[in-house]
Design brief:
- The protein is built from 10 helices and 16 strands.
- The chain is globular.
- The two termini are 28 Å apart.
- The N terminus is likely disordered.
- This is Proteinase inhibitor I4 serpin.
Length: 412
C-alpha cells in the first residue's frame, strides 16, 4: 500500500416502495466570477455550485451536531459521503421529499442533471489521484423491481450496481456486510446487523481513501507530553513533532496549519482555538473557511500534534430535520424508485465514524444508515496542539470537504 487508509461508508435502509430520477428544476442564476478553483472544477465538469453546496451543507451540519454546551465530546463527520448517499435517495424521490433533500443539501438552484453529472465527475476526479486512493463504490439491494430510469441513473451517474436482496434476513445481511467489508478493506464489516423484516431495499455508498503525509513525522522524536482536556485536566499523550515549511494562518482567535498528503491536492488542516472551542465554532462557517483558504502563507512551523484516534456514533435525523428535511421523516414520497409504490418515510439516519492519525498518515472509516419505514529549521512560529482542536480534510483541487472533526480527548 502507498499509505494508511481512510474508509467511509454510508448506507440507506429502505422499507416500503415507490420511486425515478427527480424532475428538473430551474437552472441556477448566473455563476459568480470564475476563480482558479472554479476553472479547475469546470475542467472536471463539476458545477461550481455543487462544491459550494457541499461545503455549506457540511459546515452547517457540523455546527448543528456539535456539543455547544460543553464541547466535551469528539465529533467526526464526512460531508461528502452524507451528500452522496442523500443524492442517491433524491434520485428516487418526488414532490416535497425531493425539494427538501435538495434544499437541505443547498442544491435547489441546480438542474438535477447538473447535480448528477457533477457527482459523477467528482468521483472520476478522485479516481485519478496520482498518489493515494480515494474511490467511491455504490450499490442497491432490493426485493422490489426498481424503475428503469432509477436503475439507469444509479448505473450511469453513481457507477452503482443493483442486486437482488435475499428473502432470508441473515443471508441478506451477510451479503451486504461482505460487500461493504470488501469495499472498505475490512474496516467496516457489520454495517447491517439488524435488518428489519420489512426492509425492501438498501442503498449503500462506500468511499475508500489511502494517503501518506507529504512530510511524514519522525517516530524517533515522538514524545509523551501533556494534553489539556476541556475540563482543564491534563493527560499524557504521545505527541508527534516536526519543524517544516507549511501553509500557516493565525488570528487573535486561532492558529491553523495545513498539512499536505503525498497527493498535494489533499490536505489536513488543523485549527487550534486560542480561547474556548465554542468561540471558534461560531467562526467555522463556509464563508470563513472560503476566506481562510486564500489567507494561508508559508511559514516554518514548529508543530506538535498528538497521535489520535476517534470513534463516534451519531444519529443525524434531528440535525437533518433542523436543516429542512421534514416530510422525509414523516410523509415521504419515494415514488420514483420502484415499479411497486408504497407510502414510506425515513425513520433514522445514523452515522458511525473512525479516524486514526499517526506519523505516517491517516486511516479512517465511517458508516451511516438511513432507515426508511413503510407509511531542523528555525521556526517562524510554534503550534502545539495540546488542547482541543478542530480539523478539516480537504480535496484542495475541488475544495470538497471530505471530513470535519473536533478533538476534545485524543484516544478516548
Amino acid at each position: 500500500m502507498k499509505g494508511k487508509m481512510f474508509t467511509v461508508l454510508l448506507m440507506f435502509m429502505l422499507f416500503g416502495g415507490g420511486c425515478k430520477p427527480p424532475a428538473e428544476e430551474p437552472a441556477s442564476s448566473a455563476q459568480s466570477p470564475a476563480s482558479s478553483d472554479a476553472a479547475k472544477n469546470k475542467a472536471y465538469d463539476i458545477h461550481e455550485g455543487f462544491i459550494e453546496a457541499e461545503r455549506i451543507f457540511g459546515t452547517e451540519l457540523f455546527q448543528n451536531m456539535s456539543d455547544k454546551d460543553g464541547f466535551t465530546d469528539n465529533l467526526l463527520i464526512s460531508p461528502y459521503s452524507l451528500q452522496q448517499v442523500l443524492l442517491m435517495a433524491a434520485n428516487g424521490a418526488e414532490g416535497d421529499t425531493l425539494k427538501e433533500i435538495k434544499a437541505a443539501l443547498y442544491l435547489s438552484g441546480l438542474h438535477d442533471s447538473s447535480i448528477n453529472k457533477s457527482s459523477l465527475a467528482l468521483m472520476k476526479r478522485f479516481e485519478s489521484l496520482p498518489e493515494g486512493d480515494l474511490l467511491t463504490a455504490n450499490a442497491v439491494w432490493t426485493r422490489l423491481e426498481a424503475k428503469p430510469d432509477f436503475k439507469q441513473t444509479i448505473k450511469q451517474f453513481f457507477s452503482g450496481s443493483i442486486f437482488k436482496m435475499d428473502d432470508n434476513i441473515q443471508t441478506a445481511e451477510d451479503s451486504i456486510n461482505q460487500w461493504t467489508a470488501h469495499q472498505t478493506k475490512g474496516h467496516i464489516d457489520d454495517i447491517v446487523d439488524h435488518l428489519s423484516p420489512e426492509a425492501v431495499s438498501l442503498l449503500v455508498n462506500a468511499v475508500y481513501f489511502q494517503e501518506k503525509w507529504a512530510l511524514p513525522f519522525d517516530q524517533h522524536v515522538t514524545a509523551e507530553e501533556h494534553f489539556f482536556l476541556p475540563d482543564g485536566s491534563a493527560k499524557k499523550l504521545l505527541m508527534m513533532k516536526q519543524t517544516a515549511r507549511h501553509e500557516y494562518l493565525e488570528s487573535e482567535l486561532f492558529q491553523a496549519v495545513k498539512l499536505p498528503y503525498e497527493d498535494q491536492h489533499l490536505s489536513f488542516t488543523l485549527f487550534l482555538p486560542k480561547k474556548k472551542p465554542a468561540s471558534f465554532l461560531s467562526l467555522f462557517t463556509y464563508q470563513n473557511i472560503k476566506a481562510w483558504d486564500s489567507a494561508f502563507q508559508p511559514k516554518t512551523v514548529e508543530l506538535s500534534l498528538p497521535r489520535f484516534t476517534l470513534k463516534g456514533k451519531y444519529n443525524v435525523k434531528h440535525a437533518l430535520r433542523d436543516m429542512g428535511m421534514k416530510s422525509v421523516f414523516s410523509d415521504a414520497d419515494f415514488s420514483s424508485m420502484f415499479t411497486e409504490g408504497r407510502g414510506v418515510s425515513i425513520d433514522d439516519v445514523n452515522h458511525h465514524t473512525f479516524i486514526k492519525v499517526d506519523e505516517a498518515g491517516t486511516e479512517a472509516a465511517a458508516a451511516s444508515s438511513a432507515e426508511i419505514v413503510e407509511s531542523a529549521l528555525t521556526p517562524d512560529v510554534t503550534l502545539t496542539a495540546d488542547r482541543p482542536f478542530f480539523f478539516v480534510i480537504t480535496d484542495e483541487q475541488t475544495k470538497c470537504l471530505l471530513f470535519l472533526g473536533f478533538v476534545a480527548n485524543p484516544n478516548e
